[in-house]
């Protein structure tokens, strides 16, 4: 579809246009260096130029905590609560976070589709924005360019004077209805380069990981890892969850609650009787990396790491997923040279 | 972004809401284990295979994966032999017939009985591993003509912890069953064999190519049993293992039960040994 142009001076008007017609979620500044997706009220508070939001839009489709059912202990009956479609416009989503939504869709909608996720996901429309990679982004290494418009209904590409607007779907066209934009014909500005890279194509990464199961990097990383689970918490494709019952103080009713869980936490694999199947931090680290680059990739044909850099940026111990993977690649290549 | 929308035909049934079933009988097996007989709503069949599990739900307490102990050949109600080891099973231990419990499932692949049909069936069960294996044992006994020999090797920590003692006694007398039992530590009046479960295997006379084995027991047991079976010359292709993990959701969504890349609630809990050769976390 044709491109048009949104001048910087009209960005506020554009946000007003959207939020008078829809619920709009967009990035807001939350601290000196942190940003978060929140419901817009003041258009001037929206930040379309941002490095990354702390948590992705995942929280709107898979909330950190949600009720799976309410139960009545007097009658031993349970009912599933009404789940509402999100029905909103997500303005300013980066390409890697849209790729992550696709991964979540895969987990919750293939096989037996899950009602909660499916209902909540209805009516989500995405306006993607380009970004300038910072020292943590490496999405290019997993095939997701900052200009990648996949998953967007409308995509905004940064231009010195404003934003180049691509309308990609009928829903996207509907979002712009009543907000006239002049056409734009010139090519997009060259995108900035990534400074972080995984130096190997995805297809051979699976093979390298296969051979790196006993690599010393797992134990070495475990020495500094605090097993705090922050990497799981901030990951836009981590979907593992725990389920626990809560009983009301009256003692006669309660609810079954689902909350995010993380494979880096020791209790993640614990079963009744005390057996922990991934007891060592090293095994948990390996599991996390393999889930992103091998297990789920083998099953779905695409990497489950989208290169956002959040796990590295947020790690209290300074553990870098890029460093781990590159070390495995380097050592595998050295090994190959020796055996060749 | 395009998304499957709610359309007729797309199954969107509530994955996590249990059906309310009724406990119809409670039988104490040992100090720690109890056998529960459960009737599904309307008396419908659970529709399971030997080796499958259900999620047992007690509102206010939670949910736990529990293996099914009865054979699908015994119609009507189903049974679960449950050890008191966690929060849910502790509460359940106080339940009497007439109480309602939530059930989801059956889940998992179960034992592919067709791989055992026409063959000699070797069951190796350690401790509470006998509970799911009892489903297969009774399946074979109820359809005795469809199988060759039925060899049961059962190991327990002590003779006071032996499960289903009435059935063990019946197997001992039954000419259609070759039953072997050992305990790690016997009480003073134990007259049987003492030693770990692997000590039962070397003495077995097996028609190797014609014997198919299923193993279930505590995590530490598998690698020793597999080594011993290999040592006897039983091909890996003839060995199945039923593995325990934390099957939380049962429907392949929550991530807890993974053995490397494999979801136990989807691909297991019964694994063909050649298939788990690549799963380093399995044994």
Present the secondary structure layout.
The complex is a heterodimer of chains A (340) and B (283).
Chain A (H helix, E strand, L loop, with lengths): L2 E5 L3 H11 L2 E6 L5 E5 L18 H4 L3 E8 L4 E3 L8 E6 L1 H15 L5 H7 L2 E6 L24 E6 L2 E6 L2 H7 L25 H9 L6 H8 L5 H5 L6 E7 L5 E8 L20 H20 L9 H5 L6 H19 L1
Chain B lengths: L18 E10 L4 E7 L13 E6 L3 E6 L10 E6 L3 H6 L7 E8 L12 E7 L3 H13 L7 E7 L8 H9 L4 E6 L9 E2 L16 E6 L4 H12 L6 E4 L15 E2 L2 E2 H4 L2 E3 H4 L7
Parallel strand pairs in B: 7-8, 7-11, 8-9, 9-10, 11-12
Antiparallel strand pairs in B: 1-2, 1-6, 2-5, 3-4, 3-6, 12-15, 13-14
What features would you describe in this structure?
Chain A has 340 residues and is α/β, with parallel strands linked by helices. Chain A has two domains: 3-63 and 74-176, no CATH class; 202-339, no CATH class. Chain A has helices at 11-21, 58-61, 95-109, 115-121, 170-176, 202-210, 217-224, 230-234, 281-300, 310-314, 321-339; strands spanning 3-7, 24-29, 35-39, 65-72, 77-79, 88-93, 124-129, 154-159, 162-167, 241-247, 253-260. In chain A, the strands form two sheets. Chain A has a seven-stranded mixed sheet. In chain A, helix 6 (202-210) packs across helix 9 and helix 7 (217-224) packs across helix 9. The mean pLDDT of chain A is 95. Chain B is an alpha/beta fold and 283 residues long. Chain B folds into two domains: 19-107, Translation factors (Elongation Factor Tu (Ef-tu), domain 3, Beta Barrel); 113-242, Nucleotide-binding domain of ferredoxin-NADP reductase (FNR) module (Rossmann fold), CATH 3.40.50.80. Helices cover 17% and strands 29% of the residues of chain B. Chain B has six helices and 15 strands. Chain B has a seven-stranded mixed sheet, with helices on both faces. Chain B is globular. Chain B starts with 18 loop residues before the first strand and ends in a 7-residue tail after the last helix. The interface between A and B is large, with 64 and 49 residues.
């Amino acid at each position: 579809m044709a491109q048009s142009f949104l001048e910087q001076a009209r960005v506020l008007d554009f946000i007003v246009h959207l939020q008078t017609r829809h619920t709009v979620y967009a990035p807001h500044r939350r601290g000196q260096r942190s940003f978060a997706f929140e419901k817009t009220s003041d258009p001037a508070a929206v930040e379309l130029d941002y490095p990354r939001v702390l948590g992705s839009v995942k929280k709107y489709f898979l909330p950190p905590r949600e009720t799976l059912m309410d139960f009545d202990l007097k009658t031993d009956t349970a009912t599933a609560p009404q789940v509402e479609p999100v029905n909103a416009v997500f303005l300013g989503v980066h390409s890697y976070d849209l790729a992550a939504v696709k991964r979540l869709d895969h987990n919750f909608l293939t096989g037996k589709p899950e009602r909660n996720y499916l209902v909540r996901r209805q009516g989500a429309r995405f306006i993607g924005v380009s970004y300038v990679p910072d020292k943590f982004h490496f999405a290019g290494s997993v095939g997701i360019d900052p200009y990648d418009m996949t998953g967007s209904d409308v995509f905004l590409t940064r231009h010195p004077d404003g934003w180049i607007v691509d309308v990609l779907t009928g829903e996207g066209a509907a979002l712009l209805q009543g907000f006239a934009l002049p056409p734009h014909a010139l090519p997009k500005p060259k995108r900035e380069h990534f400074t972080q890279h995984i130096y190997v194509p995805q297809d051979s990464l699976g093979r390298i990981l296969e051979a790196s199961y006993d690599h010393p990097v797992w134990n070495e990383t475990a020495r500094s890892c605090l097993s705090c689970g922050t990497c799981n918490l901030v990951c836009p494709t981590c979907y593992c969850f725990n389920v626990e019952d809560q009983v009301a103080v009256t003692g006669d009713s309660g609810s079954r609650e689902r909350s995010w869980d993380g494979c880096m936490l020791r209790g993640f694999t614990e079963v009744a009787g005390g057996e922990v199947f991934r007891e060592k931090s090293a095994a948990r680290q390996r599991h996390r990396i393999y889930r992103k680059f091998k297990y789920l990739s083998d099953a779905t044909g695409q990497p489950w790491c989208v290169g956002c850099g959040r796990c590295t940026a947020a790690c209290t111990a300074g553990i870098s997923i890029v460093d781990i993977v590159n070390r495995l690649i380097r050592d595998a290549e050295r090994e190959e040279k020796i055996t060749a | 972004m395009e998304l499957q929308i709610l359309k007729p035909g797309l199954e969107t049934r509530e994955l996590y809401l249990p059906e309310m079933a009724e406990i119809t009988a409670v039988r104490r097996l040992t100090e720690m284990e109890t056998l529960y007989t459960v009737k599904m709503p309307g008396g419908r069949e659970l529709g399971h295979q030997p080796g499958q599990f259900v999620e047992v739900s007690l509102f206010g307490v939670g949910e736990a994966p529990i293996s099914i102990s009865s054979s699908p050949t015994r119609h009507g109600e189903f049974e679960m032999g449950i050890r008191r080891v966690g929060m849910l099973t502790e509460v359940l231990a106080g339940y009497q017939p007439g109480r309602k419990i939530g059930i989801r499932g059956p889940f998992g692949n179960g034992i592919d009985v067709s791989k055992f049909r026409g063959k000699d069936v070797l069951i190796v069960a350690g401790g509470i591993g006998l509970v799911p294996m009892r489903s297969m044992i009774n399946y074979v006994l109820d359809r005795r003509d469809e199988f060759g020999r039925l060899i049961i090797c059962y190991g327990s920590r002590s003779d006071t912890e032996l499960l289903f003692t009435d059935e063990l006694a019946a197997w001992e007398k039954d000419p259609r069953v070759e039953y072997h039992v050992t305990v790690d530590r016997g009480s003073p009046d134990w007259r049987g064999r003492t030693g770990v479960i692997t000590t039962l295997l070397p003495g077995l006379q097996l028609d190797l190519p014609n014997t198919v084995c299923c193993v279930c027991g505590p995590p530490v047991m598998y690698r020793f049993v597999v080594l011993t079976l290999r040592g006897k010359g039983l091909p890996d292709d003839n060995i199945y293992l039923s593995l325990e993990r934390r099957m939380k959701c049962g429907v392949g969504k929550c991530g807890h039960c993974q053995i490397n890349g494999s979801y136990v609630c989807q691909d297991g809990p019964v694994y063909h040994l050649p298939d788990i050769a690549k799963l380093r976390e399995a044994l």
